[in-house]
Amino acid sequence: MKSYVASHLKDMNRKTVYQLISSVGEISKAEISRQTGISAPTVLKIIDYFLENNFVYEAGEGDSPLGRKPQILKFNQEAAFSIGVEMEGDFIKLGIIDLLGNIKLCRRFRVSPDFSEIVNNKLGHYIENIIEESGIEKSKILGIGLGIPGVVDPENYIVEFAPLVGIASKKDCKDIIGNLRDALNLPVYIENDANAAAIGEFVERKLDADSDLVYVSLGTGLGSGIILNGKLRRGKRNTAGEIGYMVFDKEFRTSRSEAGWMESRINFHALSQRWERFSTLESEESIMNIRKSKDFYLLVDYIASNLALSIANISNLLDINLIVIGGISAEVLGDPLIESLNEYLSRLCLLEVQCEFQKCPEPGIVGAASIVTNKRLNEMLID
Q1: Of the N and C termini of the chain, which has fewer Cβ atoms inside 10 Å?
Q2: Distance separating alpha carbons of residues 217 and 226, to the nearest angstrom
Q3: What is the distance between the alpha carbons of residues 261 and 202, in angstroms, rounded to a whole number?
Q4: Domain count, the chain
Q5: What pTM value is reported for the model?
């Protein structure tokens, strides 16, 4: 028992010191001991471990009014990196992220919406290429996080269904992910794409550990990630946040192989059918043309009036007042969408709710990579 307790305390102390240094950037050993309450000898041992693993480096002497000047330690955010991958149906995005969630390099590719084809024949090449392009040593890469637009069981590597990438029924992905892991010699983790984006936005905003946030992704599909009291809410069957399957029509029949009721009304393909110009989003010029079109505000109102119904129900049910909107459709529609949503929500919600644009430039990638970083750091900080 004593051995376990001592080891457990050591692990907790390492995590506490890591969190402090990574949050403040630079600090002295004495200040670490003062702020954490961890004894000076223990802090010295932890710092030796961090120096050995390049998490920190000595950055010279600090100021001191009396006595010996303290040695300043600086956090090395580029000691390691993680790769985040976001599947978007017809597109896939990859990014390399440092220990603080900053994007080192990001790339986007058009692909066929076929999960097996992408993972078996393309993803490994994309990852190898982006590592080479970044100039980062592969030994510094902690692993890969893969955001999938569907119902995902991340612990068992099972995708229940993800119609946007060709998965219409339950798929065991252990072998296909295992093959990618073996080919790259890197650990690979999977997560629902909207859940990953919620984590990415949470990281970017540096919210308190007990904060709430709902991230709504309005793009190729429609999904959301829910964080309650600082923890991602997946649900026992991993379907929490499936906002696209909200139904406001008693005659509708939900199918795993097709988009849900709400998603089928306002996802990218539905909007492209209603507004032909919406299918040509390949450049800033085409986006500006949509914003200048005579029916632009009809499009905004159509999306806002539908999406506000779902957001209002989530907010009223869970008492969440911060809703973050992201995705390619949201980017195209800009401020008018947010203004229209907030106008509808002011009438539909019991209490005040605020919709805001995402602050993280690539929350899906940052979130998927952050999952890797957290898992690997937990392993590295345990002796």
Answers
A1: N
A2: 12
A3: 28
A4: 3
A5: 0.90
Query: Does residue 188 register a pLDDT over 90?
Result: yes
> Taking a C-beta distance cutoff of 8 angstroms, is the pair 101, 200 a contact?
yes
Segment 38-67, tens digit of pLDDT: 999 999 999 999 999 999 999 888 776 666
What's the confidence (pLDDT) of residue 288?
59
Instruction: List the domain range (segments joined by +) for residue 158.
Output: 81-196+364-380
Domain C-terminal end among 50, 75, 100: 75
CB atoms within 10 A of CB 138: 13
Task: Report how far residue 255's alpha carbon sits from residue 258's, in angstroms, rounded to the nearest whole number.
Answer: 5
Q: Residue 284 pLDDT more than 50?
A: no
Distance CA 160, CA 118 (A): 18
pLDDT value at residue 4: 33
> Which pLDDT score, from 0 to 100, does residue 65 have?
64
Buried b (16+ CB within 10 A) or exposed e, 1-21: eeeeeeeeebeebbebbbebb
Domain end point (choices 75, 103, 122): 75
Relative to beta strand 103-110, strand 141-148 is: unpaired
What is the CATH classification number for the domain harbouring 156?
A: 3.30.420.40
